[in-house]
Amino acid sequence: MRRGPLRGLGLLVVGTLALAGCDSAGQERTTTAQVSPSPTASRTFAPGAAGAGDPYFPSYGNGGYDVAHYTVRVRYDPARDRLTGTTTVRATATANLSAFHLDLAGLTVRSVTVDGAPATHARADDELIVTPATGLTAGNGFAAEVRYDGVPAALRNEALGEGGWLHTADGAIALGQPESASTWFPVNDHPSDKATYDIEITVPKGLTAISNGVPKGRTTRDGWTTWSWSEGAPMASYLSTVVIGRFRVTTGEHKGRPVFSAVTTKVAKGAPDRSIDRTVEVADYLESVFGPYPFDAYGGVVVADDRIRYALETQTRPVYSAGFFRPGDDTGVVAHELAHQWFGNSVSLQRWQDIWLNEGLATYAEWLWAEHTGESTVQRAFDQRYATASGQVWRTPPGRPGVDDLFSESVYQRGAMTVHALRVAVGDTAFFRILRTWAAEWKDGNATTADFVALAERVSGRKLDTLFDAWLYGTERPAEPKPR
Known about the structure:
- With 484 residues, the chain is of the alpha+beta class.
- The protein has helices at 271-277, 279-290, 331-342, 356-373, 378-388, 391-395, 409-426, 428-441, 449-460, 465-473, and strands at residues 2-3, 46-47, 65-77, 82-93, 97-103, 108-114, 117-118, 120-124, 127-131, 141-150, 154-157, 161-168, 171-175, 195-204, 208-210, 214-221, 224-235, 242-245, 247-254, 257-264, 298-303, 310-312, 319-321, 348-349, 446-447.
- It has an eight-stranded mixed β-sheet with strand order 7-6-10-4-3-14-17-16, with no helix packed on it.
- Strand 8 (120-124) and strand 9 (127-131) form a beta hairpin.
- Helix 8 crosses helix 9 (449-460).
- It is globular.
- The two termini are 34 Å apart.
C-alpha cells in the first residue's frame, strides 16, 4: 500500500507485516500447517482459537484449521445499502475441533452448515463461532456454508484508520489493510492463512462489479448483472476486494493473461487512464528484475472517494486513489503496487510485524523504476532519504515498528534504505540474485524477516546480522553504507 498522494520523499505505501520481537537470527521457514492424522492421535475435541497468534493483532484470524478455498457469492443493492451473501469455506482441520471461529463483522447470519449438516452458530463481537453437529478430526477436510445479510460497514482501527466495506454514491468499495474482508464475507482474516477464491457479485444492471483474478464473464437477468471472478493463486484475505460503480473499463490480453482495468467516471479521462494503461509495461520491467510475474491476470482500478487516500496492492488488480494522478501521470505508484504482487502478495507475511518486507521492497522498486525511466537514480533516491529523514524515522525500527507505526515513514523509506544497504554490502550480482531467489523460493507462501536474512546470507555467502540489526532494529541512524 502507498499512502498519498504525497510527492517527493514521503511517498508511502501500505502492505503487510509479522510477529513481535524478531531479530536477524535464523529461523525455520514458516508455512501453512498441514496436520496428518495419526493412529494414536487423541480423539479429544476442543474449540479452535479465536485468533491466529499475531502479537500485533491478537484477535485477527483464527486457529485450528487451514482454508484452501473460498466461494463468495454476494448480491448488493446500493439504493438500500444492503448485502446478501452465501460463502462456502473449504478447509482442513489442523486440530480435533469441537467448534471453530470465522471473522465476520456486523452482518446477520441466517444459517450455517458444515458438510451439508446444520451447525449451531453464535456471535461474539466480530467473531462467528460455529459448532458442527459432529467434531472435525485433524487432517480431514470440511466445507462450511454461511448464509448472511445486512448493511455492511467499515471497521475502525484507532491507529490505522478505516477499512472494509464503504458505501458510495454509485455503489461500494471493499478495501483496507490490515483487515477488510470480514466486512463482506466470513473469513480467516489473517495473511498467514492464504487461500484461492471464486467471487460472484450481483449488482443492478448498468453497474460494474470488479474483484480479483481472472474475469469469468457476466450474466444479466431481471435487471441484475452477476460478475464472476476467479483467483487461482493463494491470496491473503486483506488483498481481496470488491469495487462497484460506473467505470471506464479497458480489457485486453498480455502474455496470454487477461488485462482488466477500470477508471471511475467521476474523474475526467486523462492521467489516471494513461498511468493505468502502462500497467503491463511496468510489470514487464519488474519481471526482468524480480523474475516471472506470479499471477494469471493484470489490471488496476482507480477510485475517487475522500475516505481512500492511498493505493493498495489488491491481488492482480491494485486499487488507486484518483488523487495520485491529479498532478499528472504517475507510474511510480503503479510500480510500487505492482512490486507488491511479488513482495506482499505472492510472498506474504507470516506476521504483521515484518511489514517492511512488503513496503521496503516495493518502495525500492519505485526507485528502480525511476532509474529505468531516467527520472532519477537509485543512489540519488537513497542519498536524499538518508540525508533528510526525520529523527522519528531513525527512532522507529522498521523491523519492529509497533502497531501505531505499522505504516510509518520508517517502514517505507528506512525499509527501502535497508534494501539498498544490502545491495551495497553484497554487490549487484548477489543482490539481484537474492531478490529473484526470494520471489521464487517463497512463491505462494508466507515468510518472516528471519527467513529473508537467512536467504540473503546463503545466496551472498556473507554474514549479514550486523547490517540488518543496525538498519531494521536500531534506534539511531546507521553509518552510510560503503561498497566493499
